[in-house]
Design a protein that fits this description.
seven-stranded mixed beta sheet, alpha/beta, binds pyridoxal-5'-phosphate, 386 residues, five-stranded mixed beta sheet, single chain, 12 strands
Amino acid sequence: MSGQGREPRGSGPWGDGTRTVRAGKGPATPGAPLRPSPVFAAPFHLGDLPPRTGGADAYARTEHPTLREFEAAVGALDGGRCLSFATGMAALTAAVLSCVGSGDRVVLPSDGYYTTRLLAAEELERFGVAVTYVATPEIGEFAAGGGLDDVRLVLLETPSNPQLDVCDIAAVARAARAAGALVAVDNTTATPLGQRPLDLGAHLTVGSDTKALTGHSDVLLGHVSVTDDELFSRLKGFRDRTGSTPGPFEAWLGHRSMSTLDLRLARQAANAAAVAEALAGSPAVTGVRWPWRSGDPSYALATRQMLRPNGVVSAELRDEAAVTALLSASRLWVAATSFGGVHSTVDRRAQWGGDAVAPGFVRFSCGIEDTADLVADLSAALADVG
Ligand SMILES: Cc1ncc(COP(=O)(O)O)c(C=O)c1O
């Protein structure tokens, strides 16, 4: 047996490059394409048998073959069963609403992606869900001190976006399980190659696959993976009823794009290491953060807990005008939100109004351009900022 069609198991004997190409793939079929093409259908022929007999597809909001291929691949990387969603926020919404009901309390990061806080303030609270906000560096102590005793779900975001603080997933998961709480991790920044929350005791791992997992800034996707079958059924039912199912083109594009995640992450991380040094060496910059940079407050835990680094760096310039000057002096760094794509981007976070950061606080997303070019361009632009 050549290994053709064998499933990669967990972090298994295969490396990240092999897993991203082969994850979730069934036995090879002679004459079939290497990567299945999208199957464009809303309803499928039912024939004269009851719907879904023998696992037949019936209607694409609840099931379609392209989505199954993509979910099998992402689930294999996460070490769980995956459900894909139209966006990262749709995935987070499903994760939270499948776990909590009226009268429950959830704990959310006060320093994570701000739309998650808006989801809580504008939607969850309206339905009688109580919300407690705890900063990522403080959640370990909060959990160990009995803070999760009346909590149904705690959502961690590590590294947090945009300030890149980390927390100890395994320690929080132990405390949560002892208190009878569920743990979900927003694993967007790390990606399923960079961190496996389910192995660390989390019940759910969630990702915005709009970011590095797909990595080309041309598709919106999200996913939730779990190991518990009952939780999987609840999430699947929630998606079937609320209809945030990705269509075949997005699922196919996501699957195709994730094949290169290992290569892209490697270059992005190499670029981030060099960019963090260049930023730290500039008098125009303070507060450089990259969890894998020795001396960073996140370094010890990130290098112990995570499997590999990524390309997101944060830092502070003097003010808004300094960021504008940097952007106009740079030829390679462009202003855009989101992160994890092949293009290097700069996002001045205060302009969105959701994060408690200074006007000159910037999230740099390192793309896959040549390291020397990115650093030279950034250094020249920083010199202009003065
Ligand atoms: C950490 C994190 N989680 C979730 C999301 C939401 O993802 P999406 O934009 O795909 O809905 C984002 C988007 O920026 C994010 O940064």
